[in-house]
């Protein structure tokens, strides 16, 4: 057997298991949603995020003519054509752009003027924070893009970033549900946030915000951000702390992604350990840790004897100090390469479940015991690449990029260490 091939297969099966169609259909069978439909009011669909097109397609198929109108806002390249009478916008991610603003404005138009018996079916997935955006009064899109870009560059985590973005937006932090009042907003959510916090997923457009202006001020101070006075003023305006017209169902998360990976690995003959579903350290630290764990497995059989698969889910961060190209999953994988050098049938793979990793065309990276030697033979400086945040070019040179294309879902990242390969089954 081949551990590298197995790692790619396990990742593929895990992502397939968390695609949104089944999750949406199950959510629409919820009693609370059926009761809303029984009121006979209008039904408006709004889908936002990287998985928005597939979620909207599944909902359209299930609901048919019952849908009154709708809008879909997703990332460039993540739409697969028209869906009935729904309006589709492709927009920028991770930085918002004018298309996202136009999509959000159209969603606000569709959700306004509704009655108490009407329902907004709000389909939410990761990436919604950037894709679904309308600047708050007095702010511009450039203001939002500047703050978001600086938060990403300094290594702020997704919860911190969203805490800031909510206060700069007319749709985040419960403000979309507030705008749709008195209609009821029924949210179906694919979670890409550790702990499945509804007020953090896509910055919680239809969820009361548990974070305060004081929290936002502390984040600004933590990273030493110097902001324009108009931005500072917006951060002082509180978001809604209660909403009487919103309910939500979480239909998928990183926990399900890891469970699916574990099932796939066992089916291939590996002993498995889900080490965490809340990985949130720096990518390089995670890569170095997995390399150390691989050496321990090889030397002592702890915590599992080979052949084994150690599975982690979550979302690491990268502190951008160089001018290279890459993403957090690629940097994690490259950071593990030196530490597993020379280990036979030892693989580290890390991929984004959405099929994209940073501003690249790769989902992530994969390395094995031969990777560091191959890079040396190619005269690629592994440590220099890491120092310059240039994991993409290094992995591309040695065949270590994982390219899946857009997957249609987004439930955080999947990282695995495979040690050994099971014997062929007779």
What's the helix-strand series? Answer: HHHEHEEHEHHHHEHHEHEHEHEEHHHEE
What is the total number of structural domains?
A: 2
State the shape.
globular
User: What class do helices, strands and sheet pairing give?
Assistant: alpha/beta
Topology:
Elements: H1 3-17, H2 20-28, H3 31-38, E1 43-48, H4 52-63, E2 69-75, E3 87-91, H5 98-111, E4 119-124, H6 128-131, H7 141-153, H8 158-167, H9 175-180, E5 184-190, H10 213-222, H11 229-235, E6 246-252, H12 254-267, E7 271-279, H13 283-300, E8 308-314, H14 328-337, E9 346-352, E10 364-368, H15 371-377, H16 382-387, H17 391-397, E11 401-402, E12 413-419
Parallel strand pairs: 1-2, 1-4, 2-3, 4-5, 5-6, 7-8
Antiparallel strand pairs: 8-12, 9-10, 9-12, 10-11
Characteristic key phrases:
glycerate kinase, domain 1; six-stranded parallel beta sheet; 17 helices; six-stranded mixed beta sheet; alpha/beta; 426 residues; Rossmann fold; 2 domains
Please characterize this protein's 3D structure:
With 426 residues, this protein is an alpha/beta fold. The chain folds into 2 domains: 39-252, 3-Layer(aba) Sandwich (Rossmann fold), CATH 3.40.50.10180; 255-419, glycerate kinase, domain 1, CATH 3.40.1480. It is built from 17 helices and 12 strands. The chain has helices at residues 3-17, 20-28, 31-38, 52-63, 98-111, 128-131, 141-153, 158-167, 175-180, 213-222, 229-235, 254-267, 283-300, 328-337, 371-377, 382-387, 391-397; strands at 43-48, 69-75, 87-91, 119-124, 184-190, 246-252, 271-279, 308-314, 346-352, 364-368, 401-402, 413-419. The strands form 2 sheets. Strands 3-2-1-4-5-6 form a 6-stranded parallel beta sheet, with helices on both faces. It is globular. It starts with a helix and ends in a 7-residue tail after the last strand. The mean pLDDT is 94.
């Amino acid at each position: 057997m081949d551990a590298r091939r197995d790692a790619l297969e396990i990742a593929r099966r895990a992502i397939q298991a968390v695609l949104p169609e089944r999750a949406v259909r199950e959510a629409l069978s919820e009693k609370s949603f059926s009761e809303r439909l029984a009121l006979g009011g209008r039904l408006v669909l709004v889908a936002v995020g990287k998985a928005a097109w597939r979620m909207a397609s599944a909902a359209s198929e299930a609901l048919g003519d019952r849908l009154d109108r709708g809008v879909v806002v997703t990332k460039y390249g993540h739409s697969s054509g028209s869906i009935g009478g729904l309006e589709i916008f492709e927009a920028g991610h991770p930085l918002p752009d004018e298309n996202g603003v136009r999509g959000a404005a159209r969603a606000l138009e569709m959700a306004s003027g509704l009655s108490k018996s009407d329902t907004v079916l709000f389909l939410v997935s990761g990436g919604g924070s950037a894709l679904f955006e309308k600047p708050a009064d007095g702010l511009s899109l450039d203001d939002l893009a500047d703050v978001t870009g600086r938060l990403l560059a300094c290594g702020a985590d997704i919860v911190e970033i969203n805490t800031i973005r909510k206060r700069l937006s007319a749709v985040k932090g419960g403000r979309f549900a507030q705008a749709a009042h008195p209609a009821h907003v029924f949210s179906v959510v694919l979670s890409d946030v550790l702990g499945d916090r509804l007020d953090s997923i896509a910055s919680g457009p239809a969820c009361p915000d548990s974070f305060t202006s004081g929290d936002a001020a502390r984040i600004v101070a933590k990273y030493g951000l110097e902001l324009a006075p108009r931005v500072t003023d917006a951060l002082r305006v509180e978001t809604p702390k209660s909403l009487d017209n919103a309910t939500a169902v979480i239909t998928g998360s990183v926990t399900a992604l890891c469970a699916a990976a574990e099932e796939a690995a066992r089916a291939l003959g590996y002993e498995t350990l889900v080490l965490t579903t809340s990985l949130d350290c720096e990518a390089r630290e995670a890569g170095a840790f997995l390399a150390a764990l691989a050496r321990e497995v090889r030397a002592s059989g702890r915590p599992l004897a080979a052949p084994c698969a150690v599975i982690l889910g979550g979302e690491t961060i990268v502190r951008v100090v160089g001018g290279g190209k890459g993403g957090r999953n690629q940097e994690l994988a490259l950071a593990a390469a030196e530490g597993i050098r020379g280990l036979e049938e030892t693989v580290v793979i890390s991929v984004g479940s959405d099929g994209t990793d940073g501003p690249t065309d790769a989902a992530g990276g994969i390395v094995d015991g031969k990777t560091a030697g191959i890079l040396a033979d190619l005269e690629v400086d592994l440590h220099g690449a890491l120092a310059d945040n240039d994991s993409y070019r290094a992995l591309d040179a040695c065949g270590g990029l994982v390219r899946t294309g857009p997957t249609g879902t987004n439930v955080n990242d999947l990282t695995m260490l495979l040690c050994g390969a099971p014997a062929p089954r007779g």
